[in-house]
Amino acid sequence: MIETLSALGGGFAVALQPQNLLLAFIGSVLGTAVGVLPGLGPLNAIALLLPFCLALRLPPESALIMLAAVYYGAGYGGRITAILLNMPGEPAAVLTTLDGYPLAKAGRGGAALMLTGIGSFLGATLSVIALTFLSVPLAQVAVAFSPADYVALIAFALSLLGAIGGPSAPKAWAAGCLGIALSLVGIDSGTGVERFTLGSFELLGGIDFTVLAIGLFAIGEILLLIETRVRAAVEAMHGGQRLTLREVLFCLPTMLRATGIGFTVGVLPGAGASVAAALSYTAEKRLNERNGSFGRGDLRGVAAPETADNAAQIGSLVPMLSLGIPGSGTTAVLLGALLMFNITPGPLLFEQRPEVAWGLIASMYIGNLMLLLLNLPLVGIFARLLMVPPWVLYPGVLALSFAGVYAVSNSAFDLLLAIGFGVMGWIFRKLQVPLVPIVLGFVLGRLLEDNLRRALSLSDGDPAALFASPVSVVLWFLTAAAILWPFLALRRAGPPR
Amino acid sequence: MLRRTLLATPALLAAPTVLSRPALSQGFTPQNPECIAPAAPGGGFDLTCRLTARMLQETNIVPVPIRTQNMPGGIGAVAINHINAQRPRDPNVIVAFSTGSWLNMAQGRFGRFAENDVRWIGSIGADYGVIAVRADSPFRTLSDLMEAFRQNIHAVAIGGSGAVGSQDWTKIALLVRAAGQDPRRMRYVPFEGGGQAMANLLGGHVQVFPGDASEVGGQLDAGQIRLLAVLSAQRLPGRFASIPTAREQGVEVEWPIVRGFYGPPQMPDAAYNYWVDVLRRLHAHPAWPEQRDAQGLFEFNMVGEEFAALARRRVAEYRQLAREVGLIQVAQ
Questions:
Q1: Which domain holds residue A267?
Q2: C-alpha distances in angstroms, B100 versus A6, A188, B275?
Q3: A328-341 burial, b for 16+ CB within 10 Å, e for fewer?
Q4: Residue from B36, B152, B164, B169 to probe the interface with A (highest A Cβ count within 10 Å)
Q5: Looking at the whole model, is its pTM more than 0.95?
Q6: S-S: A78 plus which of A89, A269, A334, A408, CB 3.0-4.6 Å?
Q7: Could you tell me the mean pLDDT of each successive run of 10 residues in chain B, 332 residues long?
Q8: Of A146, A201, A345, the CB nearest to B203
Q9: What superfamily in CATH does domain B10-127+256-324 come from?
Q10: CATH number 3.40.190.10 given to B130-249
């Protein structure tokens, strides 16, 4: 404990150097911007910045401080377009649209932005504290999690899909299955066989998440707006609609729970922020079944996924720093950056290069504070985005969306694919088919298949291995409970009123 | 099959066939040159382009800046289709590739395009395959593992990055075949990236991880893993110096992950010779070894026709393996 604190003090001595403060600030600003823009994610931004860091001959700790700030800063940006325009700027923000957009339509967009800013800060900062003191034991937990345990975790997340989809559970399940089907496209990871590629090499690598999300959400939404010719009935922020301290305190338990879920899931190197956001949203919805208005504009419905998203991002740094194992694509690039500075990422990083490891950790306390201070005053400006006339706003959004899709692969094929998904999204909106389960099914389906095949391959086809560990038994029990809950709740509540 | 020594020595670079060419290359000056990285920013292809381009400009080997263009899609198929369909004669474009591209060509994943549809310019370096086990593993030498393969191929759980047919899979498939077993029967568990495979090795969920030297250094230094062999022709330097090669242990398997560039299929000779010469001068530059190390690459210098011959030979070998294990139909 004392040793940790003194090491952390050494880290602050590094992080508080003027150059490093400036770089953390630049990284935070860039990260927020990257999070706002659909398509351009932190992975691309870090990869593009890395050669500049090398060219400027920045010391490794300074470069890492900036690049990491881009990474966790993006967790703050994704919520903005999700809440105001129903268009998630990054994968984990898909859940934020569920309650964020209804809130914005009710004139509470500013309050939702303010609350999620606070939630992101809280989730990230509490997670950095956990990372500071517990990273070594947590890393052991992370590697102990076997493919069979992942199967149970993802099955649990999938079992909650029905809770997300709004009024009609069958439609939500159907949408989830469609998402799973879309995730099958591409080269099969088990055998190398091509599936559903229709002989097209553009589909060999599978469908990119960005293309699907931008198509369904951004393009679909714009098609609907063209058709209805109704200006989105969103008011700018007015005095009476500001976020009150009472509301923040009301959401505090939600944010604390979301931090716990987000950080835990984030530490696991095979899950990710989308799983964390989905789990914490559905957990809150289930816990507050009686007094919630989830899906129609509940403040807790935006606080939960955004807090979990940021907590998960910090959590994914645990295996990266203490084991040298990347938990996500972005942390893999961060590790690659260390290699380029001739630093070997691994368990000895804290001993061999304490200025890098502890400097980075200390900078995250500072960076998240900067992001909070940066984001709160900007809420008013962001909310005014909706004052822009639709004939300027929506073509602009469409142009950015296409730019985002094109940035993924530089291919015109993906643009056509996104338009196809846009038309699908438009039709589904008219049919009241929820879109979030499609996207979650897409993300979770791939994870489920990969891990199920790994687990069965390790056990030589014996399904009993899926229930072998205590963790998996608990998760399967929760899964069963989640599926049976609606029936149990119905019985307990007595006959419908 | 993989018995040839692949490491080019400096002596090979001075071979007369290579030296007789430079006169041809004097007729070419690059204009607005471009390096295509057939993947999204952040991967190995991207680094190959960006870092090499920066180095070439800083050292004035290429007097003009080389623009990096990312062209992901179809695991590299988009890029090879692009240069074949749209700019087969372009003298100002080079494309980054790796051993993985050779595997994809061998398995017919680039559509109708393969090793004869590009002009192989040369390599910038190579990473090498390693066979990693956990520090407390009962496998102490490569012979122990080979013996286990012979006893019961199905009993050893192997976790690597990528599907059946990927680089990690091929490394272990070559070992299994060397042990006289059928690679189709081995228990290979694909993970998304070497990091996940390493996590599952450390967690004890898999017993063997056929990774790359550049991605196991941290765990090796910390004593968490043991390397049974490096899959190189000679021992690797630095922290790997004490690790024997597979060949030293009587197993003739090598796995260099070569990185380098190819040009369009009908790139004019003057331009081709220019780019070959550029790589040769890069290899000889005193600042290059440090830059190469930063990319996680060991020395592997080979250019021009000699390199093209290696590329064709390798793709042919991988095609043979893919047929044997049924990854591609024999009719192809």
A1: 2-492
A2: 46, 17, 22
A3: bbbbbbbbbbbbbb
A4: B164
A5: no
A6: A89
A7: 36 38 61 90 82 88 90 79 90 94 88 90 95 96 96 92 87 93 90 88 95 90 95 93 95 93 95 95 92 86 95 93 74 38
A8: A146
A9: Bordetella uptake gene, domain 1 (3.40.190.150)
A10: yes
